[in-house]
Amino acid sequence: MEGIRFGFLGRILYLQFFLRLESKKHNVILGALPRANILLDGGCAYGQHSKGFEEKTSCLIGLDIVKSDLLEYRKRFGNRTSCILASLDCLPLKPNSIDACVLQDSLEHTNNPLNVLSQIKSAIKPNGTLVVTVPNWYNRFLNVNPSNVKTHRHFSSSLGWKKLFRKAGFYRCDVSCIAFPILDTHFLSRNFHLFGICVMLKAHKTDRQSYKKKKSCAKKHLGKFY
Fold first, then answer.
1. Is 3 within the bounds of a domain?
2. pLDDT in tens, 150-191
3. C-alpha distances out from residue 206 to 76, 176, 177, Å
């Protein structure tokens, strides 16, 4: 099943749904991003969903495979912006060279998400932050344009994505879901990720020993670790 086909009115309604979703998602991502000296915006396209990122950092780096998009990205965000023409599947970044990274709906387009996450983990400095949004597992059935499904190479549940992050070495990873923009499903999406329209993962680079030590300490004092 490639996707659901809608008529003209259905497409208009879906467009309104999509725009409200993107607005909500953008606000959630901005709230999750910490202040960072160097912030990588991976799979940035032409910056249509990156407004406000420049206020979170003194050096914003846009990375994408389309040169014309990067030129537009540079125009949008000015002199504090650097651009890298490259694929997420083969990051040209040195180890411990960035403070934070954001991937907005781009990880599912890569050839090997595990390889991408491993490369980003190497590039991020200790205690650095990675914020990622990906479609929830059932999004493959909700796409208005079936051709878009073909570019989404990977679908998974929130649990599946979290396991992938741990496999890449991100032992400290918080998972949440962004609620549907029309229905009031905040409680459901927060407690039952199945009800979220997309998944957000916020991970921190830490070694396994430090993670276990912090987890043990939190359990001892709080009874539950988040």
1. no
2. 577 787 888 889 999 999 999 899 988 876 655 555 566 566
3. 33, 20, 23
What CA–CA distances, in Å, run from 189 to 9, 16, 224?
A: 28, 20, 20
| Amino acid at residue number 150 | K
Q: How many CB atoms lie within 10 A of CB 50?
A: 23
Q: Is residue 1 part of a domain?
A: no
Starting at the earlier edge strand, list the strands of the sheet with 172-178: 81-85, 57-64, 36-42, 98-104, 124-135, 198-204, 172-178
pTM given for the model: 0.79
Quote the domain boundaries for residue 115.
8-222
Mean pLDDT of the chain: 80
Label residue 159 left, alpha or beta by phi (over 0 means left) and psi (-120 to 50 means alpha). alpha
As a whole number of Å, the CA-based R_g of the chain is: 18
Which has the closest alpha carbon to 152: 93, 111, 186, 189?
Answer: 111
Which pLDDT belongs to residue 138? 64
Total structural domains in the chain? 1
For residue 77, name the pLDDT band (cuts at 50, 70, 90).
very high
Contact 48, 73 (CB under 8 A): no
Answer whether 130's CB lies under 8 Å from 79's CB. no
At 44 the pLDDT is 95
